[in-house]
Amino acid sequence: MLRIVFLLLLLGNAGYYLWSHGYLAGMGLAPELQSEPQRLQEQIKPDALVLQQPEAAPAPAPEPAKTESSEPSEAPAVDDGAPASRPDAQADSKPEAKTEDAKPAKDAKTAVKEPETCYQANGIEEAQADSIRRALAGKPKSDWELVANHQGGRWMVYMGKFPDTEFLDRKRGELRLMNIDFDRAGGNLEPGLSLGRFSTEEAAQRQLATFARQGVRTARVVQERPDVTTYALRLPKATPTFRSEVAALAGKNLVPKALQACSK
Predict the structure, then answer these.
(1) pLDDT tens-place string over residues 80-137
(2) 168-197: per-residue pLDDT in tens?
(3) 119 DSSP β-pair partners
(4) Which of 3, 38, 89, 262 is deepest in the core (most CB within 10 A)?
């Protein structure tokens, strides 16, 4: 059996050899020729073709060793299409600048404005007023003012001083019988009686003459209060801070006349 198979394989190989090499072409058994003779006819001077080997690429030159130099290196060249600086660097710097510019404005908005109130100190004498003027000379004139208040003298038709209260009561009884009004003299004129107070000495003297015609013999004219000019220190629109500054500058000239809120 193996011999038959061997013989068949041998015959098959021999037949394939004869067929592939064209020995059986006369019997109509031959492989199909796969050629293009027309391409050979289209060639132009095929003998002029010369095959050349490609040139070897030159080896890259070694990079020079980096050395430290005190001179700054030149900036690398920038392509025409590339931006002059990094966009992210510009973006980073702009918000910082805006933040710094916005900070003072924010502080200004959040700053607390002190309330402004009118303050005034009354009863300041002439010598004290002069000291206050010198102390506040560096402050704007619109922030403070000294207002003069002139009080003229006052005169009284006076009876007294009496030696005791018993004598005082006896004089009161006499005046009631004569229908003459009276009042306590007050102050260092006690014990005594006032038969009237007047803004001028002349008016007081006229009234004394009238009382004399009515039978009053022991009365006389005295000056109860001399002419005096006092001042009021006025701060029209003062903050608590400015009020404290003025009080410190004026010092003892405002004691005991402390600054108080202006009366409405």
Answers:
(1) 544 445 545 454 545 454 555 555 555 555 557 888 889 888 888 888 899 999 989 9
(2) 999 999 999 999 999 999 989 999 999 999
(3) 235, 261
(4) 262
Question: What is the C-alpha separation between 8 and 185, in angstroms, rounded?
Answer: 172
Q: Which domains does the chain have, with CATH numbers?
A: 117-151+229-261 (3.30.70), 154-226 (3.30.70)
Instruction: Tell whether the torsion through CA atoms of 10, 15, 20 and 21 is positive or negative.
Output: positive
Share of the chain above pLDDT 70, in %: 67
CA proximity to 188, closest of 228, 158, 219: 158
Q: Which two tokens stand for residue 156?
A: 């009284």
CB 139 within 8 A of CB 247: no
Quote the CA–CA distance of 183 and 193 in Å, as a whole number: 6
Q: Determine the Cα–Cα distance for residues 77 and 72; give it in Å rounded to an integer.
A: 15
CA angle 213, 217, 223 (to 5 degrees): 100
**Euclidean distance between CA atoms 77 and 75, whole angstroms:** 6
Closest CA to 250 of 150, 151, 264, 238: 238
DSSP letter string, the chain: -HHHHHHHHHHHHHHHHHHHTTTTGGGT--PPP---HHHHHH-S-GGG----PPPPPPPPPPPPPP---SSPPPPPP--TTS-SS-HHHHHHHHHHHHHHHHHHHHHHHHSPPPP-EEEEEEEE-HHHHHHHHHHTTTS-GGG-EEEEEEE--EEEEEEE--SSHHHHHHHHHHHHHTT---EE--GGG-SEEEEEEESSHHHHHHHHHHHHHTT--S-EEEEEE--EEEEEEEEEEE-HHHHHHHHHHHGGGGSS---EEPP-
